[in-house]
Amino acid sequence: MKIAKLIFITGLILFIPFQMKAEDGYKLWLRYSKISDKVLAEKYSGILKSICLTKEISNSDVIKSEIELAAHDMLAHAPEITSEITENTSLIIGIKGKCDLLKTKNMEQILSTLGDEGYYIDQISDKKTNYFVIAANTPAGALYGTFHLTRLMQSCSDFTELPVSESPKIKHRILNHWDNLDRTVERGYAGFSIWDWHRLPNHIYPRYIDYARANASVGINGTVLTNVNANAFVLTPQYIEKVKALADVFRPYGLKVYLTARFSSPIEIGGLKTADPTVAEVKQWWKDKVDEIYESIPDFGGFLVKANSEGQPGPQNYDRSHAEGANMLAEALAPHGGIVMWRAFVYSHEAPDDRAKQANNEFVPLDGQFNDNVMIQVKNGAIDFQPREPFHPLFGSMPNSSLALELQITQEYLGQGTHLAYLAPLYKECLDSDTYKTGKGTTVAKIIDGTIYQNEHTAIAGVSNIGNDKNWTGHLFGQANWYAFGRLAWNHNLSSELIAEEWIRQTFGNTPRLVNSITEIMLPSREAVVNYMTPMGLHHIMGWDHHYGPGPWVNIGRPDWTSLYYHQADSSGIGFDRTATGSDALCQYAPEIEKEYSNLETCPEKFLLWFHHLPWGYTTKAGNTLWNELCYKYNTGVRSAESMHQTWLKLQSDIDAERFNQVADFLMIQENEAKWWRNACLLYFQQFSGMPFPEDIEQPEGELEYYQNLKFPYAPGIKPSW
What pLDDT digit, counting tens, does each position of 234-254 carry? Predict the structure, then answer.
């Protein structure tokens, strides 16, 4: 045993018999910690004893490197890796080709079901010899299978789940980086952009390789490098050369690059006088530009476009439709196999209608007018990545168009860089929502994965939370949301619980105490945030512009950027009436949903104030007045934040000091800010309710004026001014 050390912290003396190795979180869930179980270590070493990596695998170098790293770090073992099967071979990694073991009738039948990216893992026998096999149709599938094997080993699996047969449910699984060319990141809370454009293409950071590894390990196969509030300069030859350098790094990991296209680029960098999508010279400009990109990057994925939204230029500037604008770009990309992801996040400053209705109003009439390689990218909810939203009514409303789901991984409205909010439950809540558009069982997941409408192109996008902080995501637990997005993009049937356990085991360890305690923190964390920020369907009541902290009093600028527009609190009650007596946004949903949510008896209370304006004395299902129920929800959120903090503190002896202390500090911030949200919101809303706070809750502290006067002019992640 090492000599005990006395460590003095804030006046307390802690007796620590040994010092755990410090970690900074850089390795993410690919830590490959030493396997302490001797039986499992021996078994894993036997599997990795001698590996045949067949010749047909074009990315064999990256697979070989991953196996060697995993074997070295987990097992202190150096595997023999060859391209031929020998009498010592223990593991075969191969794709359909010359390997005789993959030519059997049974194996060919299995491979025929896996598609381009799937894989099969099992133990097979041939001539009395036993092998482990990772079989796939493509190099990408072989890589994904390799990562599945290392994930099982990191989780101390005994391989009772074999055989494993996996293929992705969604074709395009893409991160959206809201990164600007000056390395600032819109809604980014983990430092600056990881893309060092100034030093590209001549300097390749090892971090770019580790980024590709991390994405491949969870099955993400595309990345949009630039902000949806786009800068045309990224399409110039100078930057195409830089993008090519990244694409070359990412290619062996199955990761395609995409770019955001600013619709006015033909004017801004092309010297044209118009960007009208029906003008021949504009069409030709885009065709030439796309040809130029593909000449450098033959596997370029395509464009993501934000048009005619929040000041971004688009086809409506020329009285053209979204379909005409998207199809112009799609025609340029089609010969190369590229796609257009056209965002449906649009709303007009002039439109007098409920903002929640506007995307549906604009896009549904265009159904069937988009080219086959156009995908309409739709946020999970109709407002803007709120802590909780009902699913977007566009899902299921455009049966003749391909729809992609856009989720936010970065926590713009969920505590930003310091709150622990595990988002798999949020993603699942949307994916599992039944739209009823073609009858019961028409879930959002089945719409976007092509099950319902048999779309050729299917996609899911996640707005990245990655920056140049050493641990990638700022908050260590932000890594879990990147991981969860990738795993659900691959298989949306996975449960939040299973994904959390996988991540915990790979990130912290396999002891039951660790797994159980951290699961206890993670699974209810998003609901805790909803409770202390926007309970019962409240939404869009955060601070102005920076979106940091509470701001139910915000009344600046256009109406639908203000909190008052959404909560509509007055002496008569609170909430936004979206039934037939109000904005009638519910008419955009299937009749089953409209009927359920319009009726106060059946509307889920989690969406009550999203769809109804109710008096303060309304009686909730728990028998409380609406005012008291709101108070209890806010207080429950605070109690949950306190509980998360206390549970974490009990794990100090189980986790290295650097990671433990960072999370402990952030949980303290979260606990304090949960109280800030509760105090500010309840003090504000009490002005209208005129009712006392329940005696059995912690009474809100301070004066409302104090909270209203707080300013945060330099909060991170604010939108660029250009």
Answer: 999 999 999 999 999 999 999
Residues 356 and 316 in one domain: yes
Closest alpha carbon to 20 in 33, 29, 30, 10 = 33
- How many domains are contained in the chain? 3
Q: How far is CA 587 from CA 357, 360, 591, in A?
A: 9, 11, 8
Q: What is the CATH number of the domain that holds 384?
A: 3.20.20.80
Asked if 449 is an active-site residue, the reply is no
Q: What is the pLDDT of residues 304-322, one digit of tens each?
A: 999 999 999 999 999 999 9
Q: Is the pLDDT of residue 8 over 60?
A: no
Catalytic residue among 412, 429, 501, 673: 412
Give the CA-trace dihedral at 703, 707, 709, 710, to 10 degrees. Answer: 140
With both helix axes pointing from N to C terminus, report the angle between 38-47 and 60-75 in degrees, rounded to the nearest 10.
Answer: 160
Task: Return the number of other C-beta atoms located less than 10 Å from residue 549's C-beta.
Answer: 19
In terms of residue numbers, what domain contains 473?
Answer: 172-492
- Asked if residue 189 lies in contact with residue 474, where contact means CB atoms within 8 angstroms, the answer is yes
Cα separation, 269 vs 346, in Å, equals: 25
The amino acid at residue 23 is: E
Q: How many CB atoms lie within 10 A of CB 5?
A: 11
For residue 23, indicate whether it is catalytic: no
* 194 plus 156 within the same structural domain: no
Angle between helices 657-689 and 626-649 (to 10 degrees): 170
| Given the residues 42, 310, 372, 456, the one annotated as active site | 310
C-alpha span between 149 and 163 (Å, rounded)? 11
Q: Say yes or no: 247 and 381 in one domain.
A: yes
Q: How far is CA 577 from the centre of its chain?
A: 30
438, two tokens:
């073609």
Give the closest residue to 479 by CA, choosing from 554, 405, 419, 409.
Answer: 409
- The conformational region for residue 43 under phi > 0 = left, psi -120 to 50 = alpha, else beta, is alpha
pTM over 0.85? The answer is yes
Alpha helices of 523-583 — where are they, by DSSP H?
525-533, 563-567
Please indicate, yes or no, whether residues 266 and 375 belong to a single structural domain of this protein.
Answer: yes
Q: Please tell me whether residues 466 and 570 are part of one structural domain.
A: no
Q: Examine residue 501 and state whether it is found in any structural domain, yes or no.
A: no
CA 654 to chain centre: 28
Q: Give the distance, in angstroms, between the CA of residue 224 and the centroid of all CA atoms in the same chain.
A: 13
What digits encode the pLDDT tens for the residues 165-182? 999 999 999 999 999 999
The catalytic position among 73, 292, 299, 384 is 384
Catalytic status, residue 117:
no
Whole-number pLDDT of residue 125: 82
Q: Are residues 101 and 241 in the same domain?
A: no
Q: Are residues 475 and 561 in the same domain?
A: no
Percent of residues, the chain, with pLDDT higher than 70: 96
Read off φ and ψ for residue 702, nearest 5 degrees: 85, -175
Distance of CA 543 to the CA centre of its chain: 23
> What does the alpha-carbon distance between residue 595 and residue 589 come to, in Å, rounded to a whole number?
9
